[in-house]
Amino acid sequence: MEPPVKPIEWLGDRIRIIDQRCLPLKECDLTLETAADVAGAIKGMALRGAPLIGIAAAMAVAVEARHWTSSTWDEFEARLLAAIEMLSATRPTAGNLFWALDRSRKVLESHKPGGSPEAASSALIADAIAIYSEDLETGLRMGRIGVDLIREGSTLLTHCNAGGLATSGFGTALAPMYVAHQRGMNFKVYADETRPLLQGARLTAWELKRAGIDVTVICDSACHLMMSRGAVDMVFVGSDRITSSGDFANKIGTYGVAISARAAGVPFYVVAPVSTIDFDLEKGEDIPIEERDSAEVTEISGVKVTPRGVPAYNPAFDVTPAELVSGIITEKGLIRPPYPENLAGIRP
Amino acid sequence: MEPPVKPIEWLGDRIRIIDQRCLPLKECDLTLETAADVAGAIKGMALRGAPLIGIAAAMAVAVEARHWTSSTWDEFEARLLAAIEMLSATRPTAGNLFWALDRSRKVLESHKPGGSPEAASSALIADAIAIYSEDLETGLRMGRIGVDLIREGSTLLTHCNAGGLATSGFGTALAPMYVAHQRGMNFKVYADETRPLLQGARLTAWELKRAGIDVTVICDSACHLMMSRGAVDMVFVGSDRITSSGDFANKIGTYGVAISARAAGVPFYVVAPVSTIDFDLEKGEDIPIEERDSAEVTEISGVKVTPRGVPAYNPAFDVTPAELVSGIITEKGLIRPPYPENLAGIRP
């Protein structure tokens, strides 16, 4: 099965990404040649989604390594550690970012005894490509596990974009939908528009529509009514970080969806690779919540919508407690409560 | 105490309103000379808010009556009944609209025996002005009752605009805030932006800021996080229709705010005049929910944000069950549960 979309590509000495800020009305690419380019793209949200941020960060270290292969080991190592530090400061909530950068750091360390920038560079490139390929496989696997929850005629709801565009191509929350569609199942998806950056209206709607899946956009605040009126059979969302107890961070608003799903008796599933799980963190309240520029709220499409002099507060994520989660779909299987025990069982 | 804003004014032979679609960056007025003008303004949301819609509808019948005073009674009556019918088709959820039009219809009927369009017209004008003045008094009264719930240093959250701009001038949910501010109390307000039409970001922020009240705008989806983190002490919202059991309709998203408020132990108050209560309706599920044009979701400030060919669903209201409501502040007092009994006690 081919992935529905290709948001990132390793081109040997540079990285091509879909510039997601252009979607859905235009499709444009960006070429990134340094770690700084990638850090800028992550911070500016030309690419986003925890798994894709992880892949891009690993590719960023790899592309940076290529630039410094003729340096001394000390210079090479210093440049790469600086790149890793810069990349890790881009998005504080994304678990996969730190996971991928840790992997790169370990590859770098393992080449310190030999002291060959050339060899380390090759290994970093190979590892970045491996992270990408593993994510493709992981996505497909999560899709094949999650599809068993979908019934013919189901109506699903999702928040933000946890799709192909948030990963190497199959997505997390949307992966079961792509597999269901490939199997010829009929189902319908409501996509929360996901203010402030409208990843649902722009990205989820774009990629599902492109794949031929029946998708309807609603305002974030409409999901509560939809669930209370029986219009939604189940919720699939992605995650930016899951703690060892099953609490998880995801795009702002996810917690509200989860509370309403519980109130309406609608099953609520998180779909995320094991790399999203931060086994060193227990409580959701310990996940750092990124606060973004208030202009994302006060301006829409460049048009100011609030009165002059009125501030806006713009937390990018919220934390949903494990007790509201019906199950966590990972590439290692569908994890059910109790999460502390059952997540520990899949710890790599 | 002067009202903080004057959204509507009876000018003897026409009506002046603030065109709320211009706010917050421009301030422009509209002059309405016929019932059709007013119906268009209500439908197009140049004015909105259940109490203000009621006032405008009564003024619309009055302005229309003035046009037909030299007709026969039969023509006069037919024209006015047609105007009432047209006006009642503008916004199906607003309880005050039907309440005000019923009042106009009764004034009209009471003049049938005399058969004098001139006399009926004078009575309709007097009644429209009375509805306006009563609303001013009602707003101030609700403000003075609701203010007792606010403590020095409180942080309040509100959804949509239930302010001066939704009424004759003091508002419903915002009335207690204006009274608190006039008394020199310090408090802070979070205004949900309220997609799709951004009444919170545009109107609530505008009128609170204008009055010198500390207001911060958040995305609708951020209220759940704010409440779960203890950043909100109480919620005040308005209502478009309250049933005899205390279930109530309000702007889409209110139900989600209420569920999260309950989950976080945050008191949740509805502020509405008795005219919003539909004593003939028992269950919230029987309140008709207006569905508005999907373009309100798919376009923001005239810019298309969804992919071509993807539909949007745009319910304008949702219904919150009485069990999530800590109290209903009316001009007759703060009504606590059990609502069926306690609301019946204030039935006019």
End-to-end distance of chain A = 27 Å
Record the strand order, biggest sheet of chain A: 6-5-4-7-10-15-16
The radius of gyration computed from the alpha-carbon positions of chain A, rounded to a whole number of angstroms, is: 20 Å
In CATH, what is the class of the largest domain in chain A? Alpha Beta
User: What is the CATH architecture annotation of the largest domain in chain A?
Assistant: 3-Layer(aba) Sandwich
Run of helices and strands of chain A? EEEHHHHHEHEHEHEEEHEEHEEEEEH
**Average pLDDT for all residues of chain A:** 96
How helical, in percent, are the residues of chain A? 25-40%
Number of helices of chain A: 11
Largest sheet of chain A: 7 strands, mixed
- The CATH homologous superfamily of the largest domain in chain A is termed Translation initiation factor eif-2b, domain 2
Structural class of chain A: alpha/beta
Would you write up a description of this structure?
The structure is a homodimer of 348-residue chains. Chain A has 348 residues and is an alpha/beta fold. Chain A has 2 domains: 8-140, Four Helix Bundle (Hemerythrin (Met), subunit A) (Up-down Bundle), CATH 1.20.120.420; 143-344, Rossmann fold, CATH 3.40.50. Chain A has 11 helices and 16 strands. Chain A has helices at 35-43, 50-67, 73-88, 95-110, 117-146, 175-182, 199-210, 223-228, 254-264, 295-298, 339-344; strands at 8-10, 15-18, 29-32, 155-158, 188-192, 214-218, 234-237, 241-243, 248-251, 268-271, 277-278, 299-300, 303-304, 317-320, 327-330, 333-335. In chain A, the strands form 4 sheets. Chain A has a 7-stranded mixed beta sheet with strand order 6-5-4-7-10-15-16, with helices on both faces. Chain A is globular, with a radius of gyration of 20 Å. The two termini of chain A are 27 Å apart. The mean pLDDT of chain A is 96. Chains A and B meet through helix 7, strand 6, helix 8, helix 9 and strand 13 of A and helix 7, strand 6, helix 8, helix 9 and strand 13 of B.
